[in-house]
Model the fold of this input.
Amino acid sequence: MNPLKDPVVETCLENVRLNAESKGSDPTSTLKGYRASIKQFTTFVNSEKGLQGELTPTDMVEEARQDIRKAKIRIQEFFVWLQGSDADERERAPIDRKYNPWTVKGKPKSVKRTSAGIKSFGVIRGFYTNNGLDFGKWSTPNIRDMIKTTIENDRQHPIFVYDETKGEYHVDYSRLRFFVDMLSLRDQSILLALLSTGQDIGEILALKLSWFRQQADRRRLSFRGFRSKTGVPFWTFFSREATDMVRKYVQINRADARDEEAIYVTRRFYNGGEGEGEQRPLSSEYYASILARISEQMGILPEGTTQNPFRPKRMRHIFQTACENAGVSDKRSKAFLGHAGGIEMVYIERHLAEHESQYAIVEPYLTVYNPNPAEDLSELRAQLGEVEALKTLTVQQATRIEELQKTVTNQGNEIKDLRQLFESRVARLEKFRERAQGP
Done:
């Protein structure tokens, strides 16, 4: 039985949806996380040795109603199991890919402590509470502390360095280049896209070839849409080097693919099979595992490390820092990133050249191989000159429109005066006519 069809799961998901919508949030991403975690949890519970039949989510809820301590134990053991350790009475049963997308050769792949904490003490606990169960006072691992540890680990591997001669921050080009050079062409293209757009991995992997092919003549790919997590609009760009990289990848690997297909695909078997499987869109989890493997090879992801310093999500953080270092306004940064606040629509409706010229100011801070070429500066100046010319033309047109409005107003007044004069003369002629006819 699919656990997502269980009534208690449907009740939980409906409550999650209503709660998100009541706060004005898009529940899509949250619901996706709940579905994946509940599937994993159901599989984990049923991997216990000696079970007499399969336990359904309804069975688990009823069990917890009788004794909430059983639910607490299951959640704690699930937290351990997700990180790759077996609980006392568990075994790693083979798991079907549709129930667990994080598998390697039939066994569950461990996740980081932070993710395990969110899935266990956040999502699964939420599954129970959304079915009316009260955990009372329960001391659980502090997810905030896990996040703090992640931040501290990032600080040990900074992406930005301070140039004392220029008095400014810039990305650590040598470190980034070394990391990118260890990736395949496809994975290089994705990483540069993440870095230069500031968007989440899901947005990048969802791109279709039709979107790419419609911009064959653009130096920077224009990327507009709505964030899948929040529904907030964004408008950003692929940097020049990211645009060149994706064009190279498509030319070599995807030239014959159909427009409706994803740009980034894989033939890797998700269930650990040998050889190549059916071609399918690349998953965010698999791509994150590729970056983690490279970090391990570089020695910056030792055993016990909470998060990969080069994880996809950090590229979004780097983009925001680059905007700050480049001196673009907070409002402009929100438009690039798709941050909520209402002001983003002001820039979403801006002219392409004007918005792109502001992105060009940030671009050198997001460029790995050629951060400040002379041709970029000359074209930037040309773009800014075009923008200034547009602004001047706009002012001139506004002045002209104002003058025309005044002329129309004056002409309207003149027409009104002529009408009144005409009406008075007609009245006088009527009086003359009446007198001429006599009594």
Residues 3-141 form one domain. The radius of gyration is 31 Å. Confidence is low (pLDDT under 50) at residues 86-108, 269-275.
